[in-house]
Amino acid sequence: MANVVVVGTQWGDEGKGKIVDLYSQDANVIVRFQGGNNAGHTLVVKGVQTILHIIPSGILHEGKICIIGNGVVVDPKILLEEIDQLKERKLFPSKTKLFLSQDAHLIMPYHCRIDTARENKKGAGKIGTTGRGIGPAYEDKVGRCGIRAIDLLDKELLHERLRRNVEEKNFMLTKFFKEEPVDFEAIYKEYSEYGERLRPYIADTSLIIDEELKKGRRILFEGAQGSHLDIDHGTYPFVTSSCTIAGSACCGAGFGPTQIQAVVGIIKAYTTRVGGGPFVTELTDEIGERIQKVGREFGATTGRKRRCGWLDMVMIRQSVRLSGITGLSLTKLDVLTGLDKIKICTGYRYGGETITESVPSDLKVLAKCEPVYEELDGWSEDISAARELSALPANTRKYLDRISHLSGVEIVLVSVGSGREETIVLKNPLRGI
Ligand code: GDP
Ligand code: IMO
Ligand code: MG
């Protein structure tokens, strides 16, 4: 029996959705613990694609418990739409239960408005957020004026909290951003209705997790974003507003660290980034363009083109350290097929020294870092039908060996296509083998 945390090791979109869906076969409970609908997790099952923004990626499996933990910021409109769409497409199994933590904070219409207004005001220096109101919602949570899921069930309290918030946010919107105000009555009515619809899902999810743990059930914790978008450890301020590393699972779901047996880091065979911020190994040439095209690197949430570059092992080593990663799941290896040479960044050259363990926090230093590359021979064979390591070309296996060696962590899974079955499973962390 093992409870496993899955986290992204880069800047998000590593393929967490695919791997969590696959691992969910061996889990009883699947829990999202941070982020919000800035996430876009793609699942492809029998050729059918589903993109989840807020519901855990275990939802397609029958008989599971899916939990949106207290650490997630939830846009109730998006959550309800996602539930409706899954039900319409008959993808919400009848014996699978979905719960929303009573303590999860809500994304309100003014959060989205402030997010966008702030980005517009920043102009060229903008973060490139998803515009989903994530930052402003977390600000209110930490500022102790946020509205939680449970607050939707108490009309009087909702009225009072909302009134205070709207007063303050409208001051900001109209006086500072010179924008239109939001309408208190309209939001109150809209969110009161959401409360009624969400009532059956709202629960003390920390307690549910504890009950399941006591029954010896396996729990899978699904991270969103990636380690280098972490609010503390990422390339600040070009980050998201939550803690994206494995430790965040405990705070964002309400259980103790002694319950975690394994941490799987999802690593894309190259690097991508959506939005602004430094990117040492970025490729602005035809190779970058090729990876973007072949890998269909468009944001699953905003549809924006993802910036592409070579794999950066400085980032990965830091992610391994931050999350105590015990195994790596490597995705999108097939995308590199056909490249003559493949590069891995093993360090950053800065001022005559080589940095290998940590991405510099000082963005001025980071901007001056030059990638140190190791060059490997590529492969031309189609690898998408491979289901075991021995079916991979020798050069592909060399690439995997280098990644494992440079990260100091074993590879437990290799993904060679977007489909659930397009996978080479080497170890199963949930079964502890
Ligand atoms: P997430 O946010 O980490 O869940 O990743 P996204 O879903 O945003 O982006 C990953 C994209 O790559 C999705 O379109 C997946 O369907 C796709 N994908 C996942 N694994 C593989 C793989 O091994 N090969 C290929 N070609 N595509 C993959
Ligand atoms: P998944 O879970 C990739 C990025 C945004 C922006 C920065 C801040 O699918 O991997 P935010 O809206 O969070 O305030 O934006 O973070 N970002 C992501 N990039 N994948 C994600 O999620 C992301 N969620 C946020 O593009 O640069
Ligand atoms: Mg994504």
The average pLDDT is 97
Spatial shape: globular
Structural class: alpha/beta
Spans of at least 5 consecutive residues with low confidence: none
What proportion strand?
15-25%
User: Span from first to last CA?
Assistant: 10 Å
Helical content, roughly? 25-40%
Strands, count: 20
Radius of gyration: 22 Å
**Chemical compounds bound to the protein:** guanosine-5'-diphosphate, 6-O-phosphoryl inosine monophosphate, magnesium ion
- Strands in their spatial order, largest beta sheet: 9-7-5-2-10-1-11-15-19-20
Query: How many H/I helices?
Result: 12
- Largest sheet data: 10 strands, mixed
What does this structure look like?
This protein is α/β, with parallel strands linked by helices. Helix content is 32%, strand content 20%. The protein contains 12 helices and 20 strands. It has helices at residues 16-23, 76-88, 109-122, 134-142, 155-176, 184-198, 205-214, 248-253, 286-294, 313-323, 363-368, 394-407; strands at residues 4-8, 29-32, 41-45, 48-52, 65-68, 73-74, 97-101, 105-106, 202-203, 219-222, 262-268, 271-273, 307-309, 311-312, 327-331, 341-350, 353-355, 370-377, 411-415, 423-425. Strands 9-7-5-2-10-1-11-15-19-20 form a 10-stranded mixed beta sheet, sandwiched between helices. Strands 14, 16, 17 and 18 form a 4-stranded mixed beta sheet that branches. Strands 3-4 form a two-stranded antiparallel sheet. The protein is globular, with a radius of gyration of 22 Å. The structure holds guanosine-5'-diphosphate, 6-O-phosphoryl inosine monophosphate (IMO) and magnesium ion. 6-O-phosphoryl inosine monophosphate is lined by residues 8, 11-13, 38-41, 127-130, 132, 134-135, 224-226, 229, 240-241, 274-275, 300.
